[in-house]
Design a protein that fits this description.
This protein is α/β, with parallel strands linked by helices. The protein folds into three domains: 79 residues, 2-Layer Sandwich (Alpha-Beta Plaits); 63 residues, no CATH class; 36 residues, Alpha-Beta Plaits. The protein contains six helices and seven strands; from the N terminus they run ββαββαβαβαβαα. The strands form two sheets. Strands 1-2-4-3 form a four-stranded antiparallel beta sheet, with no helix packed on it. α4 links the parallel β6 and β7. α1 runs antiparallel to α2. It is elongated and about 75 Å long. The structure holds iron/sulfur cluster. The site of iron/sulfur cluster has 12 residues, from loops. Keywords: Iron, Iron-sulfur, Metal-binding.
Amino acid sequence: GGGVIGRYCDHPERFPGVEHFHTMRVAQPNGKFYSTDFLRQLCDLWDFRGSGLTNMHGSTGDIVLLGTTTPQLEEIFFELTHKLDVDLGGSGSNLRTPAACLGESRCEYACYNTQEACYNLTMEYQDELHRPAFPYKFKFKFDACPNGCVASIARSDMSFIGTWKDDIKIDQEAVKAYVGGEIAPNAGAHSGRDWGAFDIQKEVVGLCPSK
Ligand code: SF4
């Protein structure tokens, strides 16, 4: 199945300490929200059954655990799935670990719920991860807006990018209030310095990429 990338040394008799040094991929939580309790358990497990070296996160999106031996693989898989409530990530010709930006959970730009989409597709296709059935790898990634924080276009075969439906809604009263100086630009973040009056031509119209 997926999730384990076998690494073997060509000269085990010369380097017995790294006879095997397998990588394990573990599915990252949606939006990469962790509790310290989970991270402690993961590190304890990897210190005990692996090298202790981690990569948070690989360019696949996974939690990457670097370096363990063949007899430890099933033990680690059991601990991950039964105690930490997390599954292996993808590798090889199968579904790769889906990844989502944190979207609606924190970001004001989100146009759809990336975490829900990512969760549902992960649950639907997780079997394809454990029993590779595809002729080649396949990746879904989810960006909730065109800023593309998970770089879904570059990193996946099928990218889901949130955009607007219908006309963009503009609160003309608020725009007037910005222009008139009643609302502080950028929520007051620049208030420590004098940036001059708000200039809609320079700061909005002149920066429009469609110009
Ligand atoms: S892709 Fe868009 S919605 Fe998602 S975190 Fe980035 S800016 Fe926010």
